[in-house]
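Aim 2 progress. For DUF6431 domain-containing protein, the working sequence is reproduced below.
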Amino acid sequence: MITIITEECNEISQKFYDNAMDSIQICQLECTCGCSGCLVGHGQYTRSIKTALGKIPLLIRRVQCDICCTTHALLPSGIVPYSQVPLAEHAAIAASFENGGRGMEVMEADPELSPSQVFYILSLYIRFWRQRLLSERLELSPAHALTQPCLRLFGRQFMQIKNTRNILFVPPT
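Predicted structure tokens for this construct:
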């Protein structure tokens, strides 16, 4: 998995995703095996993201390493791997908990979220992420600012639970 730092986006869409991915050159990306310039397009898959506008299907691009044959999904930094809920909502639910709430107020802004999803996100935050953020003095806001330190310090996107290697790519300016 390769997480690409993108500008903060209020609504994730296919157009936003395509523009972000088109702005980088695949030859700039590095594989988890350490090889640079060895990734080639390998296809795509559909995944859904829950937003205030409803469930948005996204075609996620994949690349494959010519050296080790590993495949990687290309994800913008606003998406949490293995989750249908965007990074901003994960951070908002966690911030609600830290401010004495239960995260349910986030459901008002995003009707696609169910109470069970909010509870699940809160339980993961409390069990796996809260102490990590506190130990490194990382703030929950702004949400997009969590990506780089979490990948650098923990090797995962904020709220990524599966222990899958995740490489950070910061496009040159």
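Residues 51 and 100 are 24 Å apart (CA to CA). This observation will guide construct design in the next reporting period.
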